[in-house]
Amino acid sequence: MKLSIVATLYRSAPFIEEFWRRASESARSVAGDDYEIVLVNDGSPDESLALAIELTQRDPKLTIVDLSRNFGHHKAMMTGLARAEGERVFLIDSDLEELPEWLIDFTAQMDRERCDAVYGVQERRRGGWFDRLSGRIFYRVSRLLTGLDIKDDYTTARLMSRRYVDALLRHDEREIDIGSLCVITGFDQRAMPVTKLSASKTTYTLGRKLSLMLNAITSFSNLPLIGIFYLGITIFVVAGAFSTYFAIVWLFTDNPVSGWTSLIVSLWLLGGLTLCALGVIGIYLAKVFSEAKRRPYTIVREIHGKQRR
Question: How many C-beta atoms surround the C-beta of residue 94 within 10 A?
């Protein structure tokens, strides 16, 4: 099979039919009749699943992977990639903010540059000033702490070769950040400037963005733990210097330092730093706990469609 198109469904009912139609047209323009479309229902609370199943009656190339509950966008995407069989796999969101027609341009660039992956990068991040500022901070902090070359404002949409997808799926962790996994997988990856539309309200709230950043940092970097070590060394050196100073003042002057204020401030400071350090260590221990149990990161309830494996 030449091509697989993979997308996830979550509150996607208003977009499903148009997405399917446009994705099918784009697939036929680059792969003829040798393609498949895999839609992963990530526990969508609306009628997305029912509409998608109805489409399978009209299109034998459409397969619906119905997950047993909502597991999260990134895990659902990895499940869809594991299901795809094409020599090239086009991963995209189904909400029409990313255009299915990008497949044509991505294919042309991949053919021209003979690379393993082509992904979209927004020419200008959508949203207001706060969205743009928080996005810029997110990517800079992620790059600083993980050491990964994560591009600003990259999109879900990417066209990948079979060997790239197979390598990506070898990452078997339970806590998934697909953007970072795509970077560490390597191979020859090229960016293409795109303009992302704003068709619906984003489900990525500020809290969810912070959670994603925390997950990416703690999954791909040990710098926070190293930072705790150096912070402890710094506090030890500073405390030792002040202790020496106070001892000299007490021994050789008639004005010993009053200690109540400095004592209370020091207790609050060190108590806060201790709790912060324990929290960081706890996050890493929680990840070890999650990985050690080896629970499946998604559970498939049922597969709908005629193309079954």
Answer: 25
Mean pLDDT score, 141-160: 75
Res. 255: pLDDT tops 70: no
**Alpha-carbon span 38 to 65, nearest angstrom:** 7
Which tokens hold the place of 268?
């609050």
CB 226 within 8 A of CB 281: no
The first and second tokens of residue 265, run together, are: 């401030």
**Tokens coding 102:** 């990008």
CA neighbor of 41 nearest in space, from 61, 58, 64:
64
Say if CB 156 and CB 92 are below 8 A apart: yes
Assigned CATH class of 3-206+297-304: alpha beta
Give me 74's structure tokens.
Answer: 């990134």
In this structure, are residues 119 and 191 in contact, taking their beta carbons and an 8 Å threshold? yes
In the chain, where the domains are located: 3-206+297-304, 223-293
Taking the model in full, what pTM does it have? Answer: 0.74
Q: Which pLDDT value is given to residue 235?
A: 73
